[in-house]
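Tokens as discussed.
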């Protein structure tokens, strides 16, 4: 079984944007939470329940298929092996989807500079 990669972290209640620390940093710079990073959070939260639903449906079918009351023919073993293969493929698919989201979140900055509060000439 695969372990889920780290999920993108939603913006915390007390989380603040980066602060200018150096003497050459622009103190007027304003920051906003990156909408692309927020999109990844939404994607993660959308995909997880759907994958859980698929996993639980296959687990239920697998448990029923393994039950001796379900199959009275020798062909039942083949169906159990098919469902086991589907579960394995679903685990690989889950891992690849969540890893893709997690990797993109790791490469996406959480905060981006914005033009708000930037100095501008009066017109």
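Sequence:
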């Amino acid at each position: 079984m695969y372990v889920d990669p780290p999920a993108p972290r939603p913006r915390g209640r007390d989380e603040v944007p980066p602060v200018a620390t150096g003497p050459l940093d622009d103190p007027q710079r304003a920051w906003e939470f990156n909408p692309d990073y927020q999109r990844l959070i939404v994607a993660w939260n959308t995909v997880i329940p759907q994958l859980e639903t698929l996993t639980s449906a296959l687990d239920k079918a697998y448990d029923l298929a393994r039950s001796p009351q379900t199959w009275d023919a020798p062909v039942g073993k083949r169906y159990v092996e098919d469902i086991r293969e589907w579960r394995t493929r679903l685990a690989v698919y889950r891992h690849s989807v969540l890893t893709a989201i997690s990797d993109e979140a790791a490469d996406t900055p959480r905060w981006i500079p914005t033009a708000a509060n930037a100095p501008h000439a009066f017109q």
